[in-house]
Amino acid sequence: MADKAISLDRIGKQYLLRERSHKYKALRDVLANAYMKPFRRFRGAPAEAHSPRSSSRELFWALKDISFEVRHGEVLGLIGSNGAGKSTLLKVLSRITEPTTGRAVIYGRVGSLLEVGSGFHPELTGRENVFLNGAIIGMRKAEIERKFDEIVAFAEVERFIDTPVKHYSSGMYLKLAFAVAANLEPEILFVDEVLAVGDAAFQRKCLGKMGEVSRQGRTVLFVSHNMTAVQSLCTRAIWLAQGQLVADGSPAQIVADYLRSNSAAAVDQVWEDPATAPGNEVIRIHRARLLAKDSYHITVNDSVQLEFLYWNFLNGAVQNASLTLYTLEGVAAFSSASLVRECPAGLIRVVCTIPGDFLNDGGYRVQLMIVRDTSTILYNHQSLLTFEVRDVPRPYSWYGKWIGVVRPKLEWDHEVVDTVASVVSSGVH
Amino acid sequence: MTATDLRIQSDSNFSGPGVIIEPRSGWVALHLRDLWEYRELLYFLTWREVKVRYKQTALGAVWAIIQPLFNMLVFSLFFGRLAKVPSDGVPYPVFSMAGLVPWTFFANGMTQAANSLVTNTNLVTKVYFPRLTVPVSAVLSGFVDFVIAFVMLLVLMLFNGVHPPIQVLWFPAFLLLAVGTAMGVGMWLSALNVEYRDVRYVLPFLVQFWMYATPIVYPSSLLKEPWKTLYGLNPMAGVVEGFRWSLLGSGRAPGPMLWASVSAAIVLVVSGAYYFRRMEKTFADTI
């Protein structure tokens, strides 16, 4: 289908940043202001200095000149760092707040899920809240009745459906709220991060449901920080930064660009001058570099080479390099050491290869040590390289981090030793 | 409309050229059709208010009776018995109760409506729906309490041998006037409350002063024309006198005073609705 579902023409949203103490105006301030105005003129003081409305009247564009079109059936991922304007854009499109400039047109029935469980009341039972919440997000009563059993089954709260939700665990509460939302069937769906609720198993279920929705040919706008989810669910991605559209294209490309620009990764560090390079009087680091198919976009299948070049000023020392890989949480994943060699003074190169199918999804930091006689540490650098490893997208199924610091691909044997029939016949006499 | 647009319409059940989102300025149309489209939501929000109101209270719906009943007892003692305030020839308890029942409905409806948007901040900032449903459902949810209190009024009338006259047929009109007034004030206050939380503090005073400006403890027959007509600009004066005239047969048919009340109520509702719609676009940003 090539029909327009949404079109945005130079949408902008401006917010007035007020003084922190003026979260909302009190009538007192307005009156005091009106009262102060005539005096101000006599005093000759600059008017702005006294008026809280003008002195703190800082304007801020949360969105600026956003234009794009979405066709029916497209699943569009909106990515960007916090405060980039993604959620504001969804709020404008779902008519919660009005744009300051521009114009958008939406062709179709809209459902928007910016938060699950809006309007849930703690005193009402699960059953009552399903109806209430359904009505709030725009479902007809008949529609909710028809889907009621499905909703309850999806949420896995059958036993507690007639219990007030204030007695629910927070997980149950979120599951029920999501289940209602997931059964909303609009032509155009806006979804904010909120879908990442509950435990890992439930998140998997949520993403599965999202995949199902997108395969039914509905138009979806999906805001997420989960890049792997964006890649597996979306057919197109838009990258926002500081309220502006940075790039628009295929999810794989946009996500890669975004990660590259945004990543804290340090995958190639070079110091040309031995005088200022990190190190000490005996060792100076010249270069630390990570080599992979794409160093900014390493997948769990890729093998990674860590290359270190250093100046050795200790002629004839017996030395070796050793590295420790830490996860971003600071857990040591493993250590490994190079062969011990007698090195002349000069530039030395050591390379360590980490095989593919070994690292887990996540960020890693490399600590490097140069050791003399396998006992004396000549130089120790805590964080010479940092890099991120990502799971490989598999369409419509959960992926991401596995349990453990590494996830090696190991040899497995798998065979049938005996069939059920013979087990039963030998077990029962 | 382009050919593409037409095709979309035939593809799906979607009717209309699409929802246009753009900045509006100044006064905007009321779009009462929106409210009709969302009538099920209105129903569910009202139902929620009713359900939740007396949850986890020991006395439950008895509270709906206690409020007017105790006021009536206090008024009957001080104003009826001690101050000998005239009551248009009806026993004072019945007289004051007939005023208190619509007044309690109005005062609670106004208070609930005024706080309704602020109480539902999470809805206003996260979901789109016609915001008018919030204060309107707050007023409508008071109906259950009203019916309970009304039954008690009927019992009290029966006890005192007061029978409704033929003009009781007019009663629904006065009830409608009370609903309209509560909604008009509720729309004004709820929209103001979004920006000025002072409303929360003003409310108790407003309720108190307004009650003494309404003929609840005294009859409006104490006033002479033209003051009486002017007095009718308080729509609740028309409501209370109307309740007494149609239910108890006391006083005279409210003439010019009632018209003043009806006009004032219409002004309140229309201006309230327009003001609400005007402020609505900034609710999610300022609340």
SSE map:
The complex is a heterodimer of chains A (429) and B (287).
Chain A: E1 4-17, H1 27-43, H2 52-55, E2 58-71, E3 75-79, H3 86-93, E4 101-106, E5 110-113, H4 126-136, H5 141-155, H6 170-182, E6 188-191, H7 200-215, E7 219-223, H8 227-233, E8 236-241, E9 244-249, H9 251-262, E10 268-270, E11 283-291, E12 298-299, E13 304-312, E14 317-327, E15 332-337, E16 341-343, E17 346-354, E18 362-372, E19 376-390, H10 420-427
Parallel strand pairs in A: 3-7, 3-8, 5-6, 6-7, 12-19
Antiparallel strand pairs in A: 1-2, 1-4, 8-9, 10-11, 11-13, 13-17, 14-15, 14-16, 14-18, 18-19
Helix pairs in contact in A: 4-5, 4-6, 5-6
Chain B: H1 3-11, E1 19-21, H2 32-37, H3 39-53, H4 63-82, H5 92-119, H6 121-126, H7 133-140, H8 143-159, H9 171-195, H10 198-212, H11 227-231, H12 235-247, H13 256-286
Helix pairs in contact in B: 3-7, 4-5, 4-8, 5-7, 5-8, 5-9, 5-10, 5-12, 7-9, 9-12, 9-13, 12-13
Strand content of chain A: 25-35%
- Unreliable residue stretches of chain A: 38-55
Largest interface: A-B, 50 and 46 residues
How do the helices and strands follow one another from N- to C-terminus of chain B? HEHHHHHHHHHHHH
Q: Shape of chain A from CA axes?
A: globular
Trace the largest sheet of chain A across and list its strands: 5-6-7-3-8-9
Estimate percent helicity of chain A. 25-40%
Low-confidence stretches of chain B: 1-15
**What percentage of the residues of chain B does DSSP assign to strands (E)?**
under 5%
Structural class of chain A: alpha/beta
Helix count of chain B? 13
Question: What share of the residues of chain B lie within helices?
Answer: 55-70%
